[in-house]
Structure formats: C-alpha cells, structure tokens
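Q: What changes when nicotinamide-adenine-dinucleotide is included in the input?
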Amino acid sequence: MDKYNIIIVTGGLGFIGKHFVRRCLELGCFVKNYDNVSYAADLRIKAEFDAHENYIHFQTDIATLNFLPECDALVNFAAESHVDNAITSNRKFCETNFLGVQNLLELVRSKQEAERPLFVQISTDEVYGDITAGQHSENDKLIPSNPYSATKASADMLVKSWGRTYDVPWRIVRPTNNYGCHQYPEKLIPKSAWRMRRGLPAIMHGDGSYIRSWLHVDDTVDAVLTVIEKGAPNQIYNVGSNIELRNIEVLRAIAKHLDVPEEKAWHPIGDRSGQDVRYSLDDSRLRALGWEPKRRFFDELPEIVDTFDYRRFI
Ligand SMILES: NC(=O)c1ccc[n+]([C@@H]2O[C@H](COP(=O)([O-])OP(=O)(O)OC[C@H]3O[C@@H](n4cnc5c(N)ncnc54)[C@H](O)[C@@H]3O)[C@@H](O)[C@H]2O)c1
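A: The predicted holo structure follows.
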C-alpha cells in the first residue's frame, strides 16, 4: 500500500471494518479509526487495536465529525447494517448511512483538490434489490427493497454526485453477504449457532428458500485493498462469491456441525417484510484486477460456529 499509507477507517470496530483495520496494520499502514462504538462495535478488538503504535481510535459519529486529518484514503464501513432493525426503526439508518456519508464527503470536499483523499464507500449488493435468475452488474438500476438498502443506495448516489460536482475522487465497493469469525450475533450464522447451542431452534424466515451468496470477510478485505490499489478512478466494483445457498442449507450445515437433529434445529416464522428472494453479482470487473474469493464456505463454517464470543450475546 505504498501510495496509501495513512488510512482513515470509519466503523473499524464493526465486523468487516475490524478485519480491514487488522490487515492494514499488518501491511504497515497508519490507521485512524472513527467509530462511535455502537452496539455493533467489538470492544475486545478495540483493546487489541489500541495497543498498536500505528493506530488511533476516535469515538465519533460520522454524521457530526467536523474535522478530517490528512490521509491518503478514507474507507467508510460505518453503517447501521441490520435489515431487521431498519424495518423496526429506520431513522438511525438515514442519519448514519445517508447523512453520515454526506458529512464525510463534505469533509473531503473542504480540502484543497490535491490534498483530497480517495473516498471509498463500502456499499452492498442489496442496493440492486433481488434477482430471481442471472446476476446484477454495476450498471444495473438500483431498486432497493427495504429502508437499509434504500439508505445504502442513496449514499452511493451521493458519492457519485460529489465526484461529478466537486471532483471528490471515489470508488464504491458492493460486497455480497459476508461471513466470518466474530460477527455481531444478530446475523444469521452466529445467531443461529448460539440458539442451537442453547437447545433453542434457530429462527428461519419463511420456508428458508431465500438464496444468499456467501463471501468470507477476508475475501472482502482482499477486494477492498484491490479496489484501492488497482481500481479505476470513480468506478464501482461488485464483490461476489463462490457459493450461493438457501438459508435452510446454512441452518442445516450449522445443525450438522453442532450435532443438532434437524427437527429441533430451526423454527419457521413469517416472511421478513420486503424480503429479497435472491442476490447475485457479476463481479467480472473486479476479477479482471486479479481478485477472486479464496475461502470456501463449508471449510470455514466449523471455526466460525466454534469461536464466537459469548460475551457479545444479548
Ligand atoms: N456484513 C455484511 O454482510 C455486509 C455485506 C455487504 C455490505 N456491508 C456493508 O459493510 C459495512 C460494514 O458492515 P458490518 O457488517 O461490518 O457492520 P457492523 O454493524 O458490524 O459494524 C458497523 C460499525 O460501524 C460503527 N458505527 C455505526 N454507526 C456509526 C456512526 N454513526 N458513526 C461512527 N461509527 C458508526 C459501529 O460502532 C460498528 O463498529 C456497512 O457499510 C455495510 O452496509 C456489510
């Protein structure tokens, strides 16, 4: 990362952000992490990072931050990220995911043109809405289905318009569903594993037939670094995966690993409101830069199920 030595990360105590921060520190970068330490922040990782001499954390909200120090790239992971929460209560999603991005873009714009860092927005495959067959490419229309994906799609529009109107240099990364160790236990894999361990059935939306692509968090980190180092100016990159699974297949794999009989492993509830049936990304643009997913879902799952942090369960 020669050209990108000083990195500002936002949301660097969250699931994907912390894996990115750790990798940047391993690469010898200086990392400034702006994370307001919401419920989703990992306090155990915070202690590990705080001890690193190339790292500093500021407990700040991206929507109210009023100063941006010198840096080579700003990578925005900070977000309200859980769709179920957005369905129940969506204001915070607008404040962080939309107004937070507007504020960060303004901070970049306030710098002299030559001093502006590269603005990297971590978006999501959910901005396209669902697709029953085929794959979404970067030029497809954004048709978000729920308040979470609507705020993420709106943020992408802000980024593109700040690029065109104010010459803010940007790249947008749209990863699919991430999995990996130490994810906050509101998400499908850790939540289901936790419930099955306690003798409770996992909660399954609808009949479990919804399809998700699964991307290991370290593959996402590789993708973001590839986009920063090799990506074209003002370009969007989808990040797909090497596996698509129905939710019921994920639950079946967790149950098998924990030796829970299938009839006790999950309990169907109604459909999630606005549920997306399937996401799938054409990520050939990113693969042309030399990236491909390396981790395999069924090889990684046992460690993920076995190593979650009980202290974070609520
Ligand atoms: N997890 C996935 O499967 C996935 C898939 C595609 C895209 N994404 C995107 O990747 C990014 C990271 O997702 P994640 O799963 O790591 O999220 P997460 O919920 O695990 O972590 C979010 C982090 O951001 C911080 N944060 C929240 N609001 C903030 C604010 N206003 N100011 C400063 N910090 C704030 C939290 O404290 C937390 O540490 C998000 O933008 C999300 O939309 C996630």
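Observations recorded in class: The first strand starts at residue 6 and ends at 10.
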